[in-house]
Amino acid sequence: MREPLILITNDDGIYSQGITKIHAVLEKYSDNIFIVAPRENCSGCGHSITLSRPVRINKVSKNIFSCDGTPTDCILLSLQEVLKGKKPDLIISGINIGANLGDDITYSGTVSAAMEGALLGINSLALSVEVKNSFKKVNWLEIDKYLDVIIKGILKSNIEKGNFINVNFPECEDDEIKGIKVVKQARRKPGGKFIKRLDVKGIPYFWLTTERSGKEGYGTDVWAVKNKYVAVTPLSIDLTSNVSFKSIEKIFHE
């Protein structure tokens, strides 16, 4: 039986603990694994591609490459230059250190890399883990129990064309995760807040905070993670609104 060809990327960068973890887990299922990930942290880059300069790719070790572009650049370059046109059976983006929930997915390089895979007709999965305190270690042993379920399921299935899966693990203690919930994307208060500070010369600069507020809503990804479930959310590359077309036609009708 042919081993699946798996491509891994992320937006945290090639040396992130999350990409090391998912690589180790996937080695139980295949020896045919490639990593092509950003050289630097690209968190918040969304679905951007690099157009203003050349993009370079460098071999780190066997089947592992760094790219000085975005996660989407990594997907496109890996298919062309690393895999030489071979189509992966699965693209995994992550594991991102920090959740990608609700409207935040629109900013996420992790989710966007999986979306790029879906655009190319490849089974694609974005993985993230909630981290409320950056000084607290991720409980990988607890997450491993559910990673295996997710990887086994995705490898033996075909996601409906034009769709991909966004998975978020809650921050957890031992035996705290309650299970897996398939849920919809939440809506939260939009935007972030810039904190103003002054440098040594008295010139202002700004740091963007990413705290989001709002009701999580039962059956949403935010609700699931808050209640210690693994949130599995199917997403689509079709961004067409479900608003009534006739109501829009009235706006532009002479």
Question: Overview of this structure, please?
Answer:
With 254 residues, the chain is an alpha/beta fold. It has one domain: Stationary-phase Survival Protein Sure Homolog, Chain: A (3-Layer(aba) Sandwich). Helices cover 24% and strands 25% of the residues. The protein contains six helices and eleven strands. The protein has helices at 17-26, 71-82, 109-119, 140-155, 221-226, 245-251; strands at residues 6-9, 33-38, 57-61, 64-67, 90-97, 124-129, 163-169, 179-182, 193-198, 204-209, 229-236. A nine-stranded mixed beta sheet has the order 3-4-2-1-5-6-7-11-8, sandwiched between helices. Helix 4 (140-155) links the parallel strand 6 (124-129) and strand 7. Helix 2 packs across helix 3 (109-119). It is globular, with a radius of gyration of 19 Å. The termini are far apart. The model has no long low-confidence stretch (mean pLDDT 93).
